[in-house]
């Protein structure tokens, strides 16, 4: 069951002193700004009048109102935009550009994910805004970065997963049914770029607080995808051989994979020789623990094509529940493969309060997934649901820029807002 929003609003927020002007849309940039909002920053999301963030239209599914009817709030948009204030500004207009520059003068961070050079023609690039606010932290998120032969290309998560090597190591082996390259089930490169961007922004803010000097951050999806190849990149540089796809198996550990049981599948992840020995002994195959071909992990990796079929025969003799109960009692890492409904029904997930209900102006409430960051002294904020398009335009212009109702009405009449 989802928990209601937090009751810790009176506690200090880690980034309660920070204002972020968020010109980004879709996922990588908004994921970063949502992290910052969760940590207490005032995130002002700048959106196109009339349409807003592209993901507002990426449905169905949409959040439903009290009568069960679809609202205009797509689930995709809701996943990446809690905690923010939405302001509509036409940045293609001269007056809209001036308004964004004025807001930037009151911000600590600017976040954007336009094509390289696009914002320069609007006077919203780093050099222009730095002249207005020298200690500004400005983070650009693009597909390929600000330089290099691909800098001006558009970058999308799916393309980057392929170009960056991820799909060459994801998916079933080519020699097995269903083998071939496979993307991740979520936009993993976008999400990781948002996470790396968050870390970079926090580092730049710490530097600014020590020195008074802002800086420019150049984040590229391709850079992030290559960086997150992790041990697979290291395997390549160490061996000189591009790693292959192993499906649900592990390139460097055996057994560390899925196995079919009588009634489904389980994951067994033996991280050391002791766990392996307990696993095969629990399956009534103690001889596989003493067999010199399988005594150590390096030997098991070399002889995986002999060992794994024997383990598959062993596991198939029992049910999922029998295996999990047996292996958990022995301290052997194992578990089921849950669908997402089963994930949120899991008692551990429920106990951790990961699903939260947040009041929403058109849906009544929306159920979202809270930040996994748990800070004892400065808890994350769960106070603001993802905003409606332009929901806070008047509020922000009055509060931050001191604009009168008449000024705001005039801007709206001109189509600037």
Largest sheet: 6 strands, parallel
Overall outline? elongated
Structural class: alpha/beta
Question: How do the strands of the widest beta sheet line up side by side?
Answer: 6-3-2-7-8-9
Helical residues, percent: 25-40%
Please identify which CATH superfamily of the largest domain we are dealing with.
Crotonobetainyl-coa:carnitine coa-transferase, domain 1
What is the CATH topology descriptor of the largest domain? Rossmann fold
CATH class category label of the largest domain: Alpha Beta
Hey, roughly how much beta strand do the residues contain?
Answer: 15-25%
Low-pLDDT residue spans? none
CATH architecture level-2 label of the largest domain: 3-Layer(aba) Sandwich
What can you tell me about this protein's structure?
Helix 1 (28-38) crosses helix 6 (188-211) and helix 6 packs across helix 7. The chain is built from 17 helices and 14 strands. The protein has a six-stranded parallel β-sheet, sandwiched between helices. The protein has a three-stranded mixed β-sheet with strand order 1-13-14, with no helix packed on it. A three-stranded antiparallel β-sheet has the order 10-11-12, with helices on one face. The longest helix is centred in the middle third of the chain and has 24 residues, at 188-211. It is 36% helix and 16% strand. It starts with a strand and ends with a helix. With 417 residues, it is α/β, with parallel strands linked by helices. It folds into two domains: 3-228 and 373-413, 3-Layer(aba) Sandwich (Rossmann fold); 256-344, formyl-coa transferase, domain 3, CATH 3.30.1540.10.
